[in-house]
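It would be a great kindness if you could assist me with a short task in structural biology. The matter concerns a single protein, recorded as an amino acid sequence and a row of backbone structure tokens. Could you please explain, in whatever detail you think fit, how the structure tokens follow from the sequence? Thank you for your consideration; the sequence and its tokens are set out here:
___
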Amino acid sequence: MLRKAIIPLGGLGTRLYPLTVETSKAVIRFLNRPLIEFSIVKLARQGITEFYMGVSGYFNYKEVYDYFGEGLKIRMKYGLSDVRIRYQPNEDSVGNADSVRIVMSYYDIREEVLVAQADLLFDVNLRDLYDYHVRKGAFMTIAVKFLDREEDIRHFGVADLDSDWRIKRFVEKPRHVSEAPSRYVNTGIYVLSKEFRDFIESPTLLEYRKKEMMDFGQHIIPLTIELGKAVYAYELKGYWFDVGTPERYLEAVFHLLKTLSPEELEAEQLTSNVKVQGKSRESKELHKHILAQIRSGEVKVDGENLIGRHVKLGKNITLANAVIDNYTIIEDNTSIYYSVVMDRCKVGANTVIRNSIIGRHSRVGKGAVIENSVLGDNVTIGDGVRLANVKLWPHRELPAHSHIENMVLR
């Protein structure tokens, strides 16, 4: 059975800007927790005991280590006594496969290992995946996902499969659906055989490294297939999200908010469409107050909503598919639709937020209208500001009554 998982964390997460300008994509807030915590817990509950973070550079390392350390917080929070978290040594990597090479060499890993990218959310049956890998005698098994929406295929590597699900090739990001050999895409989840260690340290691969060609999807998988090694596809039946853009982030948030149980969200069901978080006495009292607000009509709710710890809601609030993170204050006469407001924010009265993400520790003035926009951390928005299709970098301040559309403000 699989016991070890390597999670490459390289890259700056530029597609998620401005959320990741100053935050590692692995720990951006997602359903009021660090994103990568979902994957760690799900895998740990299926038998993974050793996690290796393929961190590249101080920025990624500090963010992740400061939160997870060597696993104590995860062990205590979820009762996972065997879990250990280790980190890539201070050696620069030139791609996600290079992070795997460094980790395997440093920790002398010579057994089957799971690899999963840091910006993924997924539901996988590890026992079934491992048994499939063994049954096929695979050198490498790649979890693939069937995409219902054909237009999404253009963003991923698409598998060309034979009748036995052996992978003949991948077509990377086909420009048109007609160029795709199937609708099964590479999920970034792999099982590597014991022999992979020798392969990734071979002279051929070291030459690839000199040319900085160490990305699994672009370089290593095509080479592996070209060399005739047995690379098989395993169909991932559960959910899978590449949380690579703000749009996909929101899609994943509200899909999982709808489908995960309260226990999986570390929440309680307050009403049919509101889940609340927090177990302290103070949190419980706030939950009672919020429930009274909903029953009186002071707070109107629709869709699926998640309210974090120590959140305070004013009067005449509308929440329709909203995630409100910990220690946030929402003032009177405010409406939030299909949006995420991260922790320790303050949203002024008479404000409308729609299809947007508000970064951590931000302040939104009174009478603001924010639509289809993403605000980085620690942003200040003046009264009466109107934003539409705007990306606002961390620490920016917008004066009162600014009207901005279709812009990126760094």
Summary: The mean pLDDT is 93. The chain has two domains: 4-257, 269-409.
